[in-house]
Design the sequence.
């Protein structure tokens, strides 16, 4: 009898324990959902309802994710807010900083959305440009900003800015920042997802992930040794204050400058000086997917008359 | 009796004439021929070029130098065209030395010429015309010094040097079309820069050789006409500026006759266009330029080299009757 009572007790206990186990599991699950949802902070008060997600870029189906975007959330009562994304897009061999996205929010229907971004490269990349594209509309992508900035100046801040008019009750569509090279999207794409304004005038920058179709073992050519062009003859210098030559050239797989030419110069006498300097410079080749890669670049040389 | 005296008088006259003839030319005098910018308009000029070769062969020169442009710039740069040129060259009965012109390589990128890669065509020329260090043509081929024996300049098989009776001769690869210093053609300026550097080294080698061997004279053969006309106030083309400056400095230092033979403008001339620096009419006296016939003017030049003459070089037109227009 006692044995059967003990057995019953054990059965009851195990039932309770089993139930508690499910309860425990459920509690953990709820907590996780809560934490996740609270982190994502999506709520009815926001116009933006989609969860953060990566928007695939054209031809980027097989991209390798190498950077992560982490935005910030700020709340303001109208006025201006600056969301510093602080992203550093690390692309092997050169880096791109999309450091500031400035959003200006006003209740005035004639408000404009201002986007500012800057990009820094270690080397000049011919044909590459930064593109910011977004839209602001209550219903569809009517207003679209598409701006492009040639990435030609290495080591300096290449700034880009654009603004688009905002309709009433606007909401911001996906914000894309992309880099292109030779007509192909090459380097980065990020969606600062859910950038938008709350009913109370709050702005929000969500989280996202960026991907690149450049593999980590791809890189731009490196300058190992930069030779300065020789000065032209005094006769040539006497004729002008300053001159420039833009040289197009390939850096071949062996790092050697080849097929240099120029159609853009103020004085032909400087072309050979510029190309001579390039030939005397030393480069490491570009790499694409781990293999040396022939790449076309452009560089502008400036010549100024020395101060007397 | 009277008749015998007349015979004796004629005999003495003949002997005297022979003696004068022998004593008027020094023992080491010789002559060579120069031509260039031919055949030009193909295929019509092949036969006219054969006429030139025939006449030049009759001159029995020690050697002939072709200063480049074996076709017009707009005619095709096919492998066959080079083979045909080589075949023509083989008809010279004596040694032939050839330096390339712009038409057979820099101009090959023209659509009418076949849109070739100019540097690739130059490579073919180097492999076809400069297989060894000997002269082309016929007769007794002789050995030439070649710049490519210096590993740094291994590419430049066409820069050659030889001597005869102490006179130093050299070809230097300098061509028309601005010496390929063409900013808008990919790779052209690079090619020019490297060749210009090689040419500078070679010109120094040539003058050093002439200086150290106490050569009585020096002759340099290039294709391009590097000079501007006297009335042309423009700067010397940048493709030739360095060469002309170096040539002037070395010529003045050398102090003995220096002859520059070139083609390119199809205009026979024998003059002194090199001026002292900063002057427009003060010629460098020991420098002489000789431009060959060419283009539609398919004739040759005979250059007599007489060491007993202070000028050493004298030029004579070899007009090919069959090619007269």
Sequence:
């Amino acid at each position: 009898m006692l044995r059967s009572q003990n057995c019953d007790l054990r059965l009851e206990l195990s039932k309770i324990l089993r139930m508690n186990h499910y309860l425990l599991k459920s509690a953990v699950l709820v907590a996780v959902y809560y934490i996740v949802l609270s982190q994502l902070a999506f709520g009815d008060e926001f116009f933006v309802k989609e969860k953060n997600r990566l928007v695939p870029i054209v031809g980027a189906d097989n991209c390798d994710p190498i950077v992560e975007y982490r935005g910030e959330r700020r709340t303001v009562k109208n006025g201006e807010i600056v969301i510093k994304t602080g992203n550093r897009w690390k692309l092997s061999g050169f880096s791109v900083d999309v450091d500031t996205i400035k959003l200006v929010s006003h209740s005035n229907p004639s408000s404009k959305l201002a986007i500012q971004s800057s990009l820094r490269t270690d080397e000049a990349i011919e044909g590459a440009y930064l593109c910011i594209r977004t839209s602001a509309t209550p219903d569809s992508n009517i207003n679209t900003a598409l701006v492009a900035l040639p990435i030609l100046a290495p080591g300096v801040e290449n700034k880009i800015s654009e603004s688009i008019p905002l309709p009433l009750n606007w909401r911001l569509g996906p914000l894309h920042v992309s880099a292109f090279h030779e007509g192909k999207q090459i380097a980065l794409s990020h969606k600062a997802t859910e950038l938008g304004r709350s009913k109370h005038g709050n702005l929000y920058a969500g989280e996202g992930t960026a991907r690149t179709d450049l593999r980590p073992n791809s890189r731009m050519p490196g300058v190992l040794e930069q030779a300065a062009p020789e000065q032209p003859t005094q006769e040539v210098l006497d004729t002008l204050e300053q001159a420039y030559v833009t040289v197009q050239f390939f850096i071949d797989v062996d790092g050697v400058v080849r097929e240099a030419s120029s159609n853009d110069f103020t004085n032909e006498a400087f072309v050979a000086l510029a190309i001579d300097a390039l030939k005397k410079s030393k480069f490491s080749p570009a790499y694409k997917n781990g293999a040396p890669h022939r790449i076309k670049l452009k560089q502008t040389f400036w010549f100024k008359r020395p101060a007397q | 009796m009277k008749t015998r005296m007349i015979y004796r008088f004629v005999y003495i006259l003949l002997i005297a004439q022979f003696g004068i003839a022998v004593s008027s030319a020094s023992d080491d005098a010789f002559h060579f021929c120069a031509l260039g910018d031919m055949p030009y308009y193909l295929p019509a000029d092949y036969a006219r070029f054969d006429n030139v070769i025939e006449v030049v062969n009759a001159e029995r020169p020690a050697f002939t130098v072709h200063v480049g442009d074996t076709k017009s710039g707009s005619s095709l740069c096919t492998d066959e065209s080079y083979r045909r040129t080589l075949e023509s060259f083989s008809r010279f009965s004596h040694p032939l030395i050839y330096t390339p012109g712009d038409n057979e390589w820099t101009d090959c990128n023209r659509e009418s010429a076949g849109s070739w890669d100019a540097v690739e065509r130059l490579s073919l020329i180097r492999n076809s015309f400069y297989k060894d260090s000997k002269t082309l043509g016929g007769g007794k081929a002789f050995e030439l010094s070649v710049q490519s024996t210096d590993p740094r300049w291994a590419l430049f098989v066409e820069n050659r040097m030889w001597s005869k009776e102490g006179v130093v001769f050299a070809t230097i690869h300098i061509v028309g079309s601005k010496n390929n210093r063409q900013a808008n053609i990919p790779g052209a300026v690079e090619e020019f820069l490297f060749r210009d550097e090689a040419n500078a080294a070679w010109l120094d080698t040539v003058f050093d050789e002439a200086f150290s061997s106490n050569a009585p004279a020096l002759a340099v053969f290039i294709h391009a006409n590097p000079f501007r006309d006297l009335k042309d106030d423009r700067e010397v083309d940048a493709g030739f500026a360095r060469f002309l400056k170096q040539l002037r400095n070395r010529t003045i230092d050398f102090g003995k006759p220096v002859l520059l033979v070139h083609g390119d403008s199809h205009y026979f001339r024998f003059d002194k266009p090199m001026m002292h620096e900063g002057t427009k009419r003060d010629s460098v006296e020991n420098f002489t330029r000789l431009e060959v016939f060419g283009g539609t003017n398919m004739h040759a030049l005979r250059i007599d080299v007489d060491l007993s003459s202070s000028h050493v070089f004298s030029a004579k037109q070899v007009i090919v009757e069959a090619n007269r227009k």
Observations:
- The interface with chain B takes residues 235, 248, 257-263, 265, 268-269, 271-272, 275-276, 279 of chain A (CB under 8 Å).
